[in-house]
Queue: 2 jobs
Job 1
Amino acid sequence: MIYDVAVIGAGVSGGSAAMELSKYNLKVVILEKALDAAMGATKANSGIVHAGYDCEPGTLMAKLNVEGSAMMEKLCENLKVPYERCGSFVVGFDDDDKKKIEELYQRGIENGVENMEIIDGEEARKIERHLSHDVKWALYAKTAGIVSPYELAIAMCDNAVENGAEIMLDFEVTSIEKKGNFIISSPGKSIEARYVVNAAGIYADKISKIAGAEEFEILPRRGEYILFDKKAESKVSTVIFQTPSKMGKGVLTAPTVHGNMFIGPDAQDMDDKEDKSTTIEGLNYIKEMAARSVTKIDYSRIITQFSGLRAVYSGKKDFYIKNSDMLPGFVNVAGICSPGLSASPAIGVMVRELLQKAGLEMKENKNYNPVRNVPKPFSEMNEEEINEAYQNDSKYGRIICRCETVTEAEIVAAIHSNVPALTVDSIKRRTRGTSGRCQGGFCGPRILEILSRELNKEPNEIVKSDKNAYIVDSRLREDKHND
Amino acid sequence: MIKVDVAVIGGGPAGLAAALSARENGAEKVLIIERDARLGGILSQCIHNGFGLHMFNEELTGPEYADRYIRRVEQSDIEVMLNTMVLEVTRSKTIHCINSDRGYITVEAGALILAMGCRERTRGALNIAGDRPSGVYTAGSAQYMVNMQNFMPGRKVVILGSGDIGLIMARRMTWEGAEVKMVCELMNYSAGLNRNIAQCLVDYDIPLKFNHTVVKIHGRSRLEGVTIAKVDEKLKPIKESFEYVECDTLLLSVGLIPENELTDNLQVDMNPVTKGAVVDETRQTSLEGVFACGNVLHVHDLVDNVSKEADIAGRNAAQYLKNSIERTREIKVKSGENIRYTLPNYIRTDIDKLDIYYRVTKTIKPAVVDVYADGVKLKSKKLLVLNPGEMETINIDIPVDAREISVEARENI
């Protein structure tokens, strides 16, 4: 089997590229080193669909942000991914900030952003009642939105697979050789493809290098976040940015599509591409900064904290998306930091165009189905819908995660989906099971049992996220008596 | 649609005793809705002994204690729905629930008893920095794994928090061959019972480090270690005291939170201290016909007290159906100096004696508890020691014309 295109990396960039390519009669394979899609920068970021005023006019970032943001609503509707156009504020506290806000507004106009206005603090507080009284000015961008980034990437991969692509999880690319076609290898296995899309996130530099294409550098920039309970008092309904100032870039306070709220991120340039830990200093910093924008943050309602690594191109401040000059047929999709999520729908299209330019011929796939056929989450069903779902599958009658009301039916479906959920965290990203206020205290052990049963594995082979993250050490006794 | 006189949400110790009491006091049709596959609630996984000393004058294990009530329920005509999750309750006492045998079920109840118990605080609530590996569990989850699922969570264990489940798990993990390195407790006292400290830590030479906490979690896949620290008098970690401890398992026993998500639907008045509903002496909430008892009302340290409280709630739910709860007054019961909370919050019926349950804010040794009615001392009681970890009671005679009763605690000098 020779694939037409191998996409390395199942984040939003790789997912978008694979989905776009599945609209054509191409044999596409997605290669992902982790046990799930969306495990890199896609997993832990702010989930903002930016309006597009922030990017330097004329950059790829500006172009793809505005294009991608415009595509996002329809795409999410088709893919059944939660998306909300909630609007955003850039808040300012003094005259200096006001100047910056005016600059951002002008930049937005240049980038083609619609529906922006500059309003005073009082006006802004009418829209977002939790804004601090110190807020004097705000750039209000109504087109900004929020999306669930990991669900978007999983859904893109799922749609690609539904339309004929393949996904290989646990495929860590360790060598790429060009012998006519590309031979791409992972320990113990290899595949052959005519074209390669390098969407390997923070490791895109390494992949380009081992393939013999351009050498460049991708720097991991860490951002820490704190996530709050849905019931937190101070829950905001819009995305609140701060004006970049001498105090730093500022942190944001924002709602999530699932009804939570978060604060963060800070920005720390790292040496270690695997260090996704949070720090006491980082968490304190974002708390301190968030308190400037929003009144009375309810710290008794913290659910969890996490951090993510942005993939930053070390050259000029832009995405690095281009055909390799050194290695024909190899496309680099690198440096996809903010606004990469917003741009992702447009990144897929651009990758397809680059492949066409590189000589890949493609014909439209007439059977392409843009709509993902996934049932509504149980938690959003009404009584009638619940009854119908239950009639078809009695596992809808068994609630496993009580905080987020997730049923056994949904968990089993996730395990056997196009991009199979093989880990406890994969279940979380698809169903929200374990993501609520008890953080898996109740459902975690039960999900472990379901995974073990459905995957036909021993309980100690079931992991939280990666291969070594076993949950239980062993069975205690062989003579277990079931009651 | 099912119609019942009394619906009890939760089939743990509170739900069982409340249902029995409601039935025995005249409620005809009583229903227990339980989300698990068996009755007994958290007692099912508490296989250690120490239950029932007050109620039955003997030492029982958790399942044995629960069994005393389960047998009585089975011998009665109380209906039980297992594996059934309540999705929503309304102010008109309609319960929407689901199970895999019958699908969506609507229950209309004359009176409702909330007995949903509590859940454990998590790592997130503590905001501990570091990695997010596997191997970090609440003590109760680990207990479920060991006692119910036959799984060993890990081999080298650090326990944060000296709540009772943490102490019990220190011993349990030791018995199963794990090395329990230490129990860290943020405060300078334990929230657990003294007998558990003696029997679960001291007997096994497990150090209990007061004024210590975990400040960082290490391990990108599975837990590899934690950084512990001593805290100052403001509970802030002292940098110089940071110490790395290698472990593959961190168990958290850092507090319990009444599971009041369903109660929120009912919009009853809540007590911010207990995080449970505000109730009067009948254990009725601010919404008539809705009662609460057990850990959903306030977190108990002894199941015996849960059963007692549930008995009151069940009896009064039955009375409510007969229209025989007469609200003749409203006396407020307040927490005075050194008292974290009192329960009930109000006295509304015509009773002349009352047991007030209370907890203190700090260890007081030796102690005196004073009860005042409208500023006049009603009763004093001397105690050798008062611990925040142990709920106490004081019985009072209620003056006929009282308007406010207040409980205070002080050192007995």
Job 2
Amino acid sequence: MTDFDAQTDALGVLLQQANAGDAAAYRRFLERLAPLVRSMARRGIGRIGTPMADLEDAVQETLLAVHLKRHTWREDQPIGPWIGAITRYKLIDLARKYGRRKEIELDDNFEQAVPEPEEPSLPEPEMHRLLETVSETQRMIVRSISIKGVSIREVAGTMNMTEGAVRVALHRALKALAVAYRRLET
Amino acid sequence: MKTGDFINALVEDQGAKRRSFQFEFGTRMAAGLAFSLIVFFLFLGVRSDFLDVVTDPHVVFKFIFAASLFAALLPLAISALRPETRLVSMLRWLVLPLVVLAGGIAFQVLTSPPEFWVSGMMGRYPAACLRSIQALAIGPLAVLLLMLRNGAPSQPVIAGAVAGAVSGGLAAFIYALHCPDDSALFVALWYSIAIGIVTVTGAVLGRVWLRW
């Protein structure tokens, strides 16, 4: 078994556990996935020839798409091609923003993906600008949960909302962010 | 926002449970089909001589052609839900309805004298054929596009076109219960145009509606 197989198998196991309701496994899944997506996205953006400043945006948009479409992964199928296809689709989206509509040849798998950590010095990704497009309540919820790292229950307490309402608002906000990113023109 | 922070939001949103695809697809497709059947029985109805002609090879051909298109492309529409599916390479399944169609044309040409070819091809009700197949395709097309929207088709235009062709095939099958024009040449021309229009509609809708 190669490193590549081991990496994807581990991700598949984690996502299966996550689908069964294990939040800690889901966190590990995303934390392991991000550095691999970053590596694929760097190569992809290099091939498209657009600014590398978009790298972290591409990573976040891909993670968001993986999150919103995770029900389309079939647990009996290898997860590598599935993640590769989502990353590729998001990179084609990115290329389109620069008016490059040509079909881009991008790898659909992890074979050359060497995990790459986030660079702390990069400019803020677009996500904070995108957050301006959602409602104020949704923005506050997303910000508290992500940046401050508080839980849905805590947000519900401080914002005087029910947990269910926060849950719904968070989910709508994430879907709205994906739509806003697609519409974003550079 | 840092990616590490963003992951917090995704993890907190993880609880949302989704119903199984199979379940959603089954019930929705049944609803789309029911819509078509209601339209059919309200506005068209089964042809009055249906029982007399049901064994006529010309009539049987219409059903086989429509069913072959539906059966060949429905698996593609379902596969298109998953992003890793390469639809283009699966389009070879189109050979099945095309072979059926070619067989029907050959049968018609060999069994009827040339002076009937053009009149058979133009039929009596070409406009009704176009209108009806399009109307009957609306329900199934809406259902398939909704399903695909919930999925992750990485080729939205082709996925939309496939959904259109599948819906067109289903609509043609239902319309064949009513259709009084029995020449295979009529089917080759007008059914194909009607299904083609639904296919293009699906592609256009897919372009705007199936991106994610």
